[in-house]
Every structure is written in structure tokens, then in C-alpha cells.
Amino acid sequence: MHIGLIGGIGVAATVVYYQRLTAAADRLGVPLRLTISHGDIHSLIRNNLDDAREAQAAIFADRLAGLKGAGCDCAALTSLGAHFCFDELNQRGVLPLVSGVAPLDDEFAARGLRRVGLLGTQVVMETRLYGQLRRTEAVALDAEAEALGRTYREIAVAGQCDPDRRRVLLDAGRRMVEDLGAEAIVLAGTDLNLAFDGTDPGYPVIDALDVHVALLAQLAAGAVALSDVAA
Known about the structure:
By secondary structure, the chain is of the alpha/beta class. It has helices at 11-28, 41-50, 53-69, 86-90, 102-110, 122-126, 145-158, 163-180, 193-196, 208-221, 226-229; strands at 2-7, 33-38, 74-77, 115-120, 137-139, 184-188, 205-207. It comes from Rhodovulum kholense.
């Protein structure tokens, strides 16, 4: 299975996808066929904030065409925020798409989680992961969604997280646990590892990127069928 990734949205998240996907394939003992097409985080941010789904889908469709030409069998977006135009992109039918959002509901349920707190883009938090969670309740700091989303964007564009922004995000997670009853905090933004990796926030954390990577690695190994997981 030749997997394509639309990366660069942002660059740091793409690097982590590459690192963790190759490591997962190694653990499974399978060779990884992977091609990455570089996207543009700045146009993604503008279109996301404007809810310009068709415009962003057109940009991504061009990247998918390149991945298809490179021989990819399927593709994935390396940004949960980019999934705001997932349906519009999928309707263009360029390549089968493997969602990074769809597997999360089953993952949370398998862990026995009844309520999770979300950190990510403003849209991801306000829509509760695009309304795709059915078996687990999601909560967020709605009054702070715009400010937290801006903090996340700044980290994604910079490709690094300074101590002040790290404190803001760690504190937001703590308050969702203490005040909103979240049993775990979901890093629903693929650059949030920049803030959380190597830290002990004092509460359970689930990186949505890892769930997506595990599914892509299973595809690469032939452990799951593309028809069962692709949109």
C-alpha cells in the first residue's frame, strides 16, 4: 500500500507523522511506501478561518493529483484542522482519503472514556471534532476557543512552542479536567506535540496524531483493508 500525505500544514506535524509512521512500520516489520506533498499552512489558515471549504478543497485536490501521479493508493491530511473541508475534498474523488478524525470515536470508546477535553483549532474545539464523536462526549473551553485557537496557530506556523504558550495550553487542559470533568485531554491538533511532548501535565493526554498514524501503519502492513477505512 503506497500512502500519500499532504504535509506542510504545519511542517513540524509533518515531521512527526514521518517519524512515527516509519517507526510504526518498522515495529510491524513491513516496508513503508510513502510520498509527501507539501501544502501551504498560510492559505489553510485563511481558508479555515473564512470557512472557505471549496477553495481549500481545490488546493488539496491539486496536491492529491500529484500524489496519485506518484503512485499513491490513498492519502491523508497531516492536520486535523485541515479536515474542515474533508467532505468537499472527498467528493472530488481524486484519491481515497483516510480520515484522522473518524478513528477517534472508536479509540476513545475502546479506552472506556466517557468525556474528553479538546485542544486544537477554534473550529475543531467549537464543533467538537466536526460532530463526529458519537460514543464519547467532548468538552472544550468555549469562551476561550478563539484565543486558544490563535495560540495553536502561532505554534503551528512557528514550528516550535515557547514556555508561555506551553503554560497556556497545559493550563487549559488542566481546567477541562478539573472544571469540566474531562477524563483525558485530546491533542486534536497535530502540532500540539510541540507543547506536550516531554512534559508531565498531571492528567491523561491522547495525541490524535498517534491514532491516525497507527491506522496508516496498519494499512501499510495490509492488516486492514482500504475499503474499510477510506472515505
